Amino acid sequence: xxxxxxxxxxxxxxxxxxxHPEIGSxxxxxxxxxxxxxxxxxxxxxxxxxAAAQLVPHASRTRWExxxxxxxxxxxxxxxxxxxxAYVSNxxxxxxxxxxxxxxxxQLPDPRVRLRPPKVTGKLVPVFxxxxxxxxxxACQGRAFAQxxxxxxxxxxxxxxxxxxxxxxxxxxxxxxxxxxxxxxxxEITVHGKGxxxxxxxxxxxxxxxxxxxxxARARHAQAWRPQLAAICHSARLTADGAGxxxxxxxxxxxxxxxxxxxxxxxxxxx
Length: 271
Prior knowledge:
- With about 270 residues, the protein is mainly alpha-helical.
- It has nine helices and three strands.
- The relative contact order is 0.12.
């Protein structure tokens, strides 16, 4: 699997200057609506970026009442020249939520009227071939803690197709089933998706055994007291980004073709 290298991320300015107070009010509105913390951050940062990179330095806007359709259009054009259409569409929808709130709050026209979000074209997502997946699993074989952990993580991804953030949120407490998301006997894992919504995913016996071996090795880890099941390195904490780095690191073992770090593990194999 040959995958193009991702572009380096551009540093984003977030100083919205005189436009900042309304963004703070928007953040409070989202929190009051019960939006997930990640959603609140993504939406508010999108508005901050728009203000700091486009409205203040290039359009000389000092009040949101001065923002018009062309400001949004110019921003979308600038983004489309540097980022994927899917990413730009997400930025547009974040601005959409802000201007919808702002228009209702201030009883003023929404500058997005008659604007449409950027069209998102489908892209082929790189996946592992069966041979590459076998090589990846082979690279994780062994009895050491890291090998047990990585084998279990890949087995769970392969069996369930859950997101990296969902894997990172799996809890384990051997003494209190109410604080544990893993039920090996019934071969079930409770994961929390977007917005913290829980759901149960099923696993097979092979995945359950891989988890059982990891849990036994984890019990001897110095950070085993932490609630996160997928302990990583010495911090005993796995983030969604950490899951991507794990896949990348393991893929660089001999005989394993490098995959795209952000590729969804729900699309691990193809015929």
